[in-house]
């Protein structure tokens, strides 16, 4: 691969507005072992055989086992082919893909794993119909991607994006969602063995969406939280998918229960973190809920509330969705007050 850091940044810059939730490439905390900069995605090694992939959608987790690799989350649709190629180049070929929830920046690349030489794909049963409903969105993103390429993009990546666009019309919902999923009991932390590792998939209830799962790998003391953690970013609140701050907090507390001081958290967005990142996510909701309750008690309008500054979160990213987050929590608190 021949993509310089400058070229990578140029591509990111050209397409960032189209994928509003693409994570910022932030400085790495102390636990990163190595970081590859010659790839399209930035692959950071967190422990031996454990990588996180950054860029073009939610953060991916890539974990090697002696029966092949498991990939967690598949980024935005135009980049599926590139994701599969680079993930396979890190170590063993990917034999299992797990989606933490249905959002298109975590499932868009599924087609590269399902349409040709398919691998096993797992998502929560409630995610499946939602993924199928997003077919038009995925294909529109794939079809539009070549127009956002610039000449600095590595040829290999360009070719993959252009090839995907030329075949987008043929994609079906079955290229994004598996034909069958696991029984619900498999999303209650029951170990799912893969080679020398056991993957524990847990769905607590509606949090960020109604189909979030977090993946705990005890052998590595690692959790991929999906979008239950938007580390140091304003969280995306999707009212069409059952989001509530109370449910989100409940899911975070359940995650904390399996953490200790050395647990590594790959968040859905933001830098690699640890249990403190989960605590901070909970605190975000607690602070905003308290502020919303006060606003409602003092008859502050929703409009004024969402425009409020939150000094405690002044360094947070994703400021473009701050008003949406605040408004959603205001509505939730109002409903709670009215006994809804
Ligand atoms: Zn999401």
Structure report:
This protein is an alpha+beta fold and 340 residues long. It has a 7-stranded mixed β-sheet, covered by helices on one side. It has a 5-stranded mixed β-sheet with strand order 8-9-10-11-12, covered by helices on one side. Bound molecules: zinc ion. Zinc ion binds next to loops. Zinc ion (ZN) binds next to loops.
User: Gap between N and C termini, in Å?
Assistant: 55 Å
Strand content: 15-25%
Instruction: Report the bound ligands by name, code or SMILES.
Output: zinc ion
Q: Kindly report the spatial arrangement of strands forming the biggest sheet.
A: 1-2-3-4-5-6-7
The Cα radius of gyration reads 19 Å
Mean pLDDT: 90
The helix content, as a percent range, equals 25-40%
Largest sheet: 7 strands, mixed
| Element pattern in H and E | HEEEEEHEHHEHHHEEEEHEHHH
Global outline: globular
**Unreliable residue runs:** 1-30
Q: Structural class from helices and strands? A: alpha+beta
Helical stretch tally: 11
Total strands: 12
């Amino acid at each position: 691969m021949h993509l310089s850091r400058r070229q990578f940044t140029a591509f990111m810059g050209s397409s960032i507005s189209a994928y509003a939730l693409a994570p910022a490439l932030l400085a790495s905390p102390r636990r990163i072992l190595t970081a590859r900069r010659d790839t399209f995605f930035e692959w950071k090694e967190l422990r031996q055989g454990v990588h996180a992939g950054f860029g073009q959608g939610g953060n991916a987790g890539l974990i090697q086992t002696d029966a092949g690799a498991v990939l967690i989350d598949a980024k935005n649709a135009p980049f599926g082919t590139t994701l599969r190629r680079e993930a396979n180049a890190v170590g063993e070929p990917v034999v299992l893909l797990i989606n933490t929830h249905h959002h298109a920046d975590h499932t868009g690349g599924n087609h590269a794993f399902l349409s040709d030489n398919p691998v096993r794909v797992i998502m929560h049963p409630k995610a499946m119909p939602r993924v199928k409903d997003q077919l038009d969105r995925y294909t529109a993103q794939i079809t539009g991607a070549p127009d956002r390429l610039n000449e600095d993009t590595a040829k290999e990546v360009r070719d993959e994006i252009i090839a995907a666009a030329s075949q987008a019309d043929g994609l079906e919902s079955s290229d994004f969602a598996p034909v069958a999923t696991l029984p619900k009991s498999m999303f209650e932390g029951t170990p799912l063995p893969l080679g020398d590792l056991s993957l524990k998939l847990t769905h607590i209830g509606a949090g960020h969406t109604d189909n979030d799962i977090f993946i705990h790998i005890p052998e590595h003391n690692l959790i991929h939280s999906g979008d239950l953690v938007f580390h140091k970013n304003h969280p995306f609140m999707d009212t069409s998918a059952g989001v509530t701050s109370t449910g989100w907090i409940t899911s975070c507390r359940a995650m904390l229960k399996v953490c200790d001081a050395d647990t590594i958290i790959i968040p859905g967005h933001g830098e690699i973190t640890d249990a403190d990142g989960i605590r901070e996510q909970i605190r975000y909701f607690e602070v905003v809920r308290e502020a919303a309750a006060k606003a409602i008690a003092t008859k502050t309008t929703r409009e004024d509330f969402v425009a409020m500054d939150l000094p405690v979160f002044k360094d947070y990213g994703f400021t473009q969705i701050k008003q949406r987050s605040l408004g959603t929590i205001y509505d939730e608190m109002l409903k709670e007050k009215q006994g809804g």
